[in-house]
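Possible regression after last week's pipeline update?

I re-ran a chain I had predicted before the update to compare outputs. Posting the input and the new output here so someone can diff against the archived version. Not blocking, just want to make sure nothing changed silently.
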Amino acid sequence: MDFSFLGRYWRYYLVGAKNTLILAVLAVAGGVLIGTLLAVGRISRRAPLRAAATAYVEFIRGTPVLVQLFVIYYGLQKAGLAFPEWPALGRLLGVSVPDFLAGALTLAINSGAYVCEISRAGIQAVDRGQAEAARSLGLRYGDSLRLVVLPQALRNILPALGNEFVVVIKESSIVSIIGIAELMYKADTIRGITFRPFEPLILAAGVYFLMTFPLSKLLGTIERRLRSDAY
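New output (post-update):
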């Protein structure tokens, strides 16, 4: 195997890793927002909210992320809702801004369904007496959920949210199909330039590992610390 091309094309991996991390951060941030709202809907006393949240989760989890990506990417274009080009941002990222935002939106929508189940499990793990005590003090349902239950649920769901971030970093490679210059796209570009089908992929796998392994170890440390604080 020959990795001599790395001296010339190492910046491709650097740019790809940067864009991958930006995509993952945007996707998880959007997924946490969507998932939290869905989790509240799934435990709501109102049947229409429960039904809508459940339908969203089941549909998103039951369809491939590639199909979701194509539906959002081509659907926005067909509806004339493509995001405007922002030249400065596009030059900074080295990508087409509409494509980048479509990819981030797809990952956020997909992640939101999984974050919903994580958040719902965390909320339901909080002792029911906590909410009842809050209600007895005069707090409304929404206030007791926001001020009492959700802060305690965060301790339960934080490790799982970190794992979701690791998963999104790896799943972000799917957006290379629509031309987003993340890590896998850059690796494919190098393959086309150097006519080496194998070595660029090995290096891409190494970069993914360098991004996810330290994060996994950090999450393990945080989880152990949270467990020790709980006792």
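Follow-up from reviewer: compared with the archived run. The first helix runs from residue 6 to 42. Marking as no regression found.
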